[in-house]
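Entry 14. Ran structure prediction on the chain below.
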Amino acid sequence: MFTHLRNIESAFQQNKKIVALVILTSACISVAAIWFAFSAYQKASSHVYVLANGKVLEAVSADRKDNIPVEARDHIKMFHHYFFTLDPDEKVIEGNISKALYLADESARNQYNDLKEKSYYNNLISGNISQQIDVDSVRLDMNTYPYYFKCYATEKLVRATSTIHKVLVTQGYLRNVSRSDNNPHGFLIERWETLANRDTTISKP
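Output, structure tokens:
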């Protein structure tokens, strides 16, 4: 009889171990499933699909801190493009300058007003001159805030009789602001000034 009881107790202990093992295994499988599902969700949510020109393009989202230098340089290039890309058309000039002034503070507006007072834009229109800019490089200091930058670019003034090439060097600072349709990168250029703007070559057509 005692042997029978010991067998029952032994079987009961064995069953407890089996049940505990099953519960532990199920818990491990559940945790692993949840972890893999969460990882898959994060991976899927990090991909954004953009429709451009009838084609679906895949973009990967990232933290802004990883993209600050890239966005900052593009912001600077966009500003210089709008401020210095001009055609002999008053509406084109006003449209581009308006876009540029959303990206900078009053220092840019002051330069615009100064050029306007000197009849720079009227001379472009009367002389049928087109002005283009190509930003060669942007030096950016991310160790201090606001972020200091120096921009190196080449200007080209195209007229019927000649084409003038200029070297343009500017500097300023970037501070963070809210993103908007007019300022998609969320930066504002401050204390912007022109360090050099000199002719390099003049070519005839």
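The CA atoms of residues 129 and 159 lie 5 Å apart. Will compare against last week's run tomorrow.
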